[in-house]
Each structure stands twice: as C-alpha cells, then as structure tokens.
Amino acid sequence: MNLFEKMFNYQMMTRLNETGLFTWTSQERAWLRMMLNHPAAPEALHPNTLHKMHDMLDAEQDLDLQDYLTEKAKSEENSVFHPLLKPLRQMILHHQGFRLTGRVRNGRISQDQFGYPYKLEYSMVKKEWYVLWYAPLHNKLMSTKLHSIITTEAQPLQPETASQYAAKIAILTENRKTTVTIEVLPEFNQELSRILYAFSCFEKQVEFVEAQQTYRIELTIPRNEMDYVLSKMRFLGKRVRIADNAALRERMSETAAKVLARYAETELETLPERTSGGVRSHPIEKPFANADGSDSA
Amino acid sequence: MAKESFDKEIQFLRMLSLTSGAYNRKQYAERLGISVHTFDKTQRRLKEIMQTVADQRSGSEQNKEMADLVRFQYGESAEPMLLFLFRAKSMKETEVQRLSVLLHTLQDQALTAMELLDACCADLPEDLALPDEKTIRSDLKYLEEVGVIRKEPGGRPYRYLLQQDVLTGLSVEEQLELYDFVDIMANTQVPSVQGYLLRDSLKKAIATSYPQEEATEPFIYKYHYYSRILDEAHLYTLLSAIRQRKHVQFLYYSPKKPSSYSSQNTNPRFEREAGGRSNRIVPLEVVYDHQYGRWYVIGFQGRRGFVKFRMEGITQLEEQDSIEEEYMLKLKQQWAEISRYSWLVDTGNTVTVQARFFHPQDGQRNFILDRVRLQGQWGTITPETDHTFLYEIQVNGITEIKPWLRSFGSSCEVIAPQRLRQEMIKEWKEIAQYYESVREDVQLPDDDEIE
User: Which residues of B touch A255 (CB under 8 A)?
Assistant: First the structure.
C-alpha cells in the first residue's frame, strides 16, 4: 500500500473536482472495511447503510493490522460514538437551537435550558463527546458531555437569530483564548523533539533564543483548558517551566509543595517512634485537603 | 518513485509543524542537512501545492507564510493540513490530463480501451501530443490496479467502469452518515491517512447536496497529535515487510540524541549513536505511542538484539531479502515475551510499581479514579481508605510510566519501588525550585462555565 499514489496527487484532485468526479481507491476501501469492523460502526451507521457498505467492500483486501501494529499507552475507549451525535449533528446542520435537560455537577438536574449548538467535540484524552453550545440568556459558551444529557429537543430558529448567535460565538471564542509561554531548560534541548511532540496537540508558536540556546513555546489555548496544560507540564516534569504566567507558576509551585508535603508526611509516619509521644506533638503542616489534581489529561 | 524527495518533505513538514517560527531559513536548512537553495525550492513547491489545495477551501490563504499554513488551528476545523504531503507526488502535466480525461469519460458509461482512446484524442487540448493505444492501456492498467476503475464482467474487449458505488449505491442521507463515520474514525483511530483521503473525496461528493459549511465541519477533536500522519508514510512499507518477512534497510537520523525512551539495556550502542547511520533489521512490529503521538518500529539486528527506532528518524527505507518463517516466528515470540510489560517500548527489568492515589475534595466527581481507570493500562486498582486507592502494575522499567504518574501532581504518591519514589521526590524538589520566586498572591482568571 503506497500512500504516494498518483491518484492522490493534488493536480489530479483539482482536475477531478472540477466536475465533482468521485474516485475511491482500493486502499481507501480497505481502510474503510477495517473501520467497519470497529464496534463503533453498528452504532454510527444505520443497519441499511452498514449492510450496503459491507456488501460493497466484501471483495476488498483485509488489512489485518492488529497482528503487526500495537497501540500503547492508549486510554481505554468505551465508545467513539454516542447516540446523541446524530440528532445534534442535524440541529447544527440546520442551524437549529435546542432545549436541553441534563445532569450537572453535584447530581443536580438542569431543566430545559435553551441553547444554540455549534460544534461536537471529542476529547482524545477523556474519550468523551461534548456538545459546544451558546446560551443566549447568559451570553456564555457552554460545553456539555453527551453522557450527561437526559433529553434534548430541537427548536426552530429564525435565520437572522442563528447568524447573530454565530457572530457572538466567534467573539466569545476569541475572547476566551489566552497564551502561556513555556521554556525548555537548555540542558534538556536534546529532548526537544519529545517535548515538542507532547505539545503538538496545541496551537503554538516556537521561538529559539540563540544566545541562550533556549526554546520558548507559546501556546494559544482556551482559558478553561489551563488545567490540561498544567497536567502536560507535570507530565514533562523538570524539562520545562512556565515562563510568563504568574497564576500558572503559582499553581505549579503549589503542586510541588503539596507533593513534597505528601511524601514528607508518609516518611514521618514510617519513622519508628523514637521520642515518646514526641512525633505527634510536633505541628505537622496541614496537608491540603484540597488535592490539586485537576480534571485533565 | 522519488523516495528521497518525500523523505525530505516529511522531515521538512515535521520540522515546520513542530517548531513553527523557531528558525530562519538558514537555520532550518542547516538542521535539515540541505542547502538554503534546496530549502527555498522545497518551500516554494510545498507552498504551491498547499495553495492549490487550500484555495478550494477558503481562497484567502495567498499571503500566509509556509509555517502559518501548516500550523495546527484548533477549533475551526478537523482539516488535517499535513495531509497534503501525500498529495505532493510529482506528475507530468500530460499524465494528469490523460488520466483525468479517462476518468471523466468513464463517469457516465462503461467503455472499452479503444473507445477511451478515441475519447482521449477528442478531449485532450490540441497542444498536447495524442496518446497511443499502448499508453492508454497502461493507464487503464494503473487505474485498475489502484482500484479506481474495474472491468465489467464479460469477455473481450473489456469494458471499464468507474468504481463509484458509494455514490450510486447510497442515498444522500447515507452519504452524509458515511462521511461522519469516516471523519470520526480517521480522527480517533490509527492509521488515518486513507481515512483522511476518503474524507476529502466524500466531502466534495456531498457538497452538492449539502453546500453549507456545517455539513462537513461539525466535529472537532481535542487534543490529538496532528503530526502523526507524517510517519504513516513509512507505515505500510514496514507493515508489508513484516507481513512478507523481509529485511528492511534504512538510514536513521536519531531525533537529536535518543532519549531514554527509545532504547535501553538491550541496545546500548544505539544510545551513543549520532544519526544518519545505516541500519538493517528484521522488522517485527510497529508500535504507536498514544502518550506522545509517535510511532516506533521494533526489529531484530543480529548482535545488537532487539532494537527500537522512532519512525520520525527513518529515511530511505528499503525492503530487502526475505527471512525464514520459523526464524521470524521465533523472534516475534521472543519479542512478545520481552515486551509484555512495556508501558511503551521499554524492555528494562520488570518491576512492580505501586502508587497511592488521592480522591479529589469532597463533592467533586472522582476524576482521578476515572483517569487511572482510563489510562492505567493493565494495572489493578484496589480501594484503600475513604479518600485513597492503590494502583499496582508490573512494568518493564520505570522511565516510561514516570511521566504519567507525575502528571497527577499531588494526587499521586509513589510507594514502590523505592528508587522511583526517591526520583519522584528529587524531581519535585527541582520543579519547586523553578518556581521559588513566585509568592505573590495571584488568582486564576475566571473560567467560563463548563458543563
């Protein structure tokens, strides 16, 4: 299987597009056939569609990749599909609003909220689908896990209203963006490739300060994703440090202090009690009821 | 096939997408090991392709810098810009013309080679030399081989027809359903290049029935490793070599110096390697690492034993002579045994790692437990107290699991082995030092409400 086939060439593609000609190669069919064996296929495709696809692809080559290709450190994947994707996708396609009832934090139920859905987002990290929507009542962008939705019902909207919402969404999305600059400690420059791979899932800009041989990575992220960046920072450990953001630097500093206190505490506990009644009477620094772990990664 | 040129383009694109903005053209050229002239030429060529492909989408990319074009833009679309690497193969203009005339002619009817020759002669622009029968036959053979067209049942002279059942056999709604499925699978599963290519064609096919943008861009994916598709360029060569039991040879450029991840005690010489070295291996397995979005190939290399290479460093990959089935099977079994407890690809000594995890504050959803369940691979979870649980796993070496454990911050305390515990403490002390000067009273900016 050669991914550099002439058929995939950009000039060919441009030429064929002129008349809307559809071509598919046996490679693409073999890939699709493999994907149809994934447990998500019967959930994502109507039985008729699935049946037709199987018929069409029956004669195709079987890729059998599982014998040669191993995926490591993968999150367990409950499902890559969710039944609400289809109705929500239709609402987005037709610029409809919705009324939504769902479970929110602390087991509360939020009743019948009105919103305008604009994207369906899958988190590769949490392996969950979310609907991103705009709540006109509060002028806020919301993100709701499909698993927490109890009911959702389409609401017709005037086209003008829908485009007003779309404009609001663009502004709010832009407003919630922020940047974080991360510095690679020069002694870890030889690990740069690994570090950059780890950050390759973010929008970013890299700067190289030649005089100090220092790489600075500027990430552009939505503000509510800070916790995920922090978890990446902890993942990479001492190779990187946050260069510019006081709040995040404080969070990292706090985490380090809490971790060290955690270890110090158990070290103390395991010490034999040499001083009679002494150990416990020392004021041990109260350790953080508030575990810093964040909902991320 | 001009293999070197793709190798260069892959490295080029990887460097641009990973380090966008870091270097000037001279520095880029130096790091890629090419002349500034070649750098400029490659950049011009890729930019031209990019614009041809991108123009159809937005039409406003004219003045963007190359690095901006390949930059990952989250939130706007699931469009994989690096895909155009696989669209970059050079072709003669005459061939492009001929093949597209052939396919267009076959769009509505099945035809014989001679009928197609006539059609070609009639449809090709006058300034092009007319093709002969032999050329047409070899074009048809190519198109049939890649599966774009097929012969109609029946005897000679064969009639050819376009494979487009997916359009003719599916209703408009079903096509959209299939598009969604392909989009989701290409973005969430590996390998994905064929899926992205198919997504591209389907996208155009459904555009006539669904012209609005919302039809083709309803989904976005966070946070996935976007540059992984570049390494798929080598994937099929390697998989086919494994399947057919062939040696492979390649020139390996170690990504800077190999980190402790790539290889440990099985392969001490490799660690000292500088790069650009020729290697001949018996390929056994390809490993995709979800933690960083990188690909590895595992092989056997005579005296050096089992070796691991990152796919990003592989160039000039070539298939060679074959290996006896029995020998290959034996190696595969050995490797399966050795790597059974590898968090990724580490084959160090097997140790039992034990860690205590702390539940989040009262009233919060237990996302720590959820995450350990989700990502903890084959480790076991045992409830301990009301606010803690224990996690235990057997792994080969501690290097690869360490970052994951560390990413939990103070919600995780390593208990055993003692060495890992000590390393953890040491590292957190160092990290604490980085931020020692921070003591101002600062607050995180208010978040937008989520959920």
Answer: 409-410
